[in-house]
Amino acid sequence: MSERETMEYDVVVVGAGPAGLSFAIRLKQLQPDTTVCVIEKASTIGAQILSGAVIEPGPLDALLPGWRDNPPPICVPATEDEFWLLSKTGGRKLPVPPGMHNHGNFIVSLGAMCAWLAPQAEALGVDVFPGFAAADTIFNDDGSVAGVRIGDMGVAKDGTHKAGYTQGIDIKAKVTVLAEGARGSLTKQLVKRFGLDKDSDPQSYSIGIKELWQVPAGRVTPGKIVHSFGWPADNHTYGGSFLYHLDKDRIALGYVSGLDYSDPNYQPWEAFQQWKNHPHVKDLLEGGTILSAGARAIVTGGWQSLPKVDMPGALLIGDSAGLLNVPKVKGTHQAIRSGMLAAEHLATSGLAPAGFDAKLRDSEAMAELKKVRNIKPAFKKGLWFGLFNAAWETVTGGRSPWTLKNKADWSSLHKLGQCEEPKRDYVQPRELQPRDRLAAVYFAATEHDEDQPIHLHVADTSVCVDKCATEYGNPCTRFCPANVYEIVQDEAGKRLQINAANCVHCKTCDIKDPYQIINWVTPEGGSGPNYQNL
Amino acid sequence: MKILVGYKRVVDYNVRIQVKSDGTGVVTDGVKLSANPFDDIALEEALRLREKGIAEEVVVVGIGPADLTAHLRNGLAMGANRAIHVTTTDAVQPLTAARAFLKLVEKEQPGLVLLGKQAIDDDANQTGQMLAALWDRPQATFASKVEIADGKATVTREVDAGLETIEVELPAVVTSDLRLNEPRFIKLPDIMKAKSKPIDVVELASLGVDSGDHLKTTHYAAPAKRSKGVMVKDAAELVAALKQKGLL
Predict the structure, then answer these.
(1) Which residue of A has its CA nearest to B70?
(2) Can you tell me whether residue B224 is helix, strand or coil?
(3) What is the complex's ipTM, to 2 decimals?
């Protein structure tokens, strides 16, 4: 084999989301001569970005002061907020919690916003490379991170090289910036290798499932923001919805389920579809059509789960670090903030990552997280306790002398028969499209060449049929929003079938699998969902 | 020999096409655009001919608005030597494209023009044939194999009855079918190299070609939705249901 090709940059960024692009823009603003490239696994920028998304514009104002004169393609000023506690057929409108007032904020498509940010980075001289997956990290002799290795293209399912086989190159850099989003596959390796989480709680996550709808004219109130909790979630499952009125008769809606749920039979995708059948939502959607759909894990561990964010040769920013603010239901402003802070740090430190952790912990981004650190974990004790505690923490501004702990999400799953099956008051049959998860995958436009190695590594599939089937009833077949995992029966008996081509890269399986034997790795560059305006 | 390759930008094949609510076209705002897959195949074939020493230069040609440059850079990153960008903000119909290509052919004097058999947006399948007629040179369409020797191209064509092999004198127009080859992956260092490759920009009007209005599109509509099916218990019920509908 010929020697692997190499490209050299001062800084390589993994992931062209709001954190990675803001970082690259800021660094080039400060030090135009520093060479920066951004690697993105999606075939086009924004195609694998999914968020609500209502954004706080402050950090964007700081990054690009003139942005309001040239706004991203979907950008609707927030006009009114509503907050509901739902029952199956009705609900109660509650006062909007202080953190959820959105006056001055904007409803955007984060995917479209990233596609709008990327050319601005390129104009400053950043090389942005969509369609290339950073498959691995490479290291210097002294153990520091030396850059990333791009995944090979043209490898067959059995590992042999197809006719068009192209070896991935190495990108060597003085600093590698991980901006992969929640549960990044390289971040996961590096956290382990450098023990970055040894002084923090385990990270915790939720799964957000989203659809974009085109509805009949006259139903949409552009700028209206509605959040709800309650039905269809039971009291012990953290679940809530968002529904944002965009312009042009479009509505962005979604449902977030905490991945710390305990019932092995819980299906986040089904909970989302159930919520859509609530009269408040159904009346808006009926007669409309889905434009796009997808799912993504959300990082929710907050202040106490933030790992050390610098290591020799590399940094973590945005949701790779874990900076989302749960009660605000927002992470984009934190992503931009941390990206800018990392750029400012590198610009003053002569590209030395050390010291960024301290700087971030001292920043506004962490101060914001500290105030709300006890809100999400308290919901583990039930909805009413969670709400009461949220009110307390909000009134006191997070000055409680205690900090509630986070547990790893996979560890919260109860075994079959060991927990009382929650009463689910679901609507049967559902009427709105999509009928099932496979129909929904169609709206994610996900695409993987079927003849490539499966990118969901299951360390020992015998566990699935021998152990998991009886202990947990194969929850992977339920938590995956894209129906990737199936237990099939053939002549050889029962076995796990992985429909990797359906994968929407949400990372839920990697997080929630109770045996922690599923490892999500990058497929061939350019594979995966092709979201439009999510 | 020089090879001219048509390189059209279309809505990506993974995108779920949405018709604009007023029926005047399909939604292209915020939609992923990429090379027409048949054009990628045509370009790949040209590059292979160059690698075999049969051609010296591969030139990709695109017709469209100013932002087409990024798309042409992809063709250069794949390996084309240079690009020609014919600029227009109007929609380009097949006859207009063929006339523009003719002007470029007269200037560039290529030994071969390789085009996709059709573009996956309008599925017209006309530009190659029209260019051959205007140029008054042979055409070999739907090619699944191309061999070039002694000033002739031996082309295997995918036709309804199977495969047909014809021989055409060069210069000629060849249009690619799906099985001609599998386009290569673009490598990162080649994206960087492509940044310094030349792109000539010419206005469509300056070639003496008007964007024309040969075809009038009356309206666009999504295919009618399939009506809801009926579940039947067994074959007898199926037969009864079909009879009732007068289908049996």
Answers:
(1) A119
(2) coil
(3) 0.87
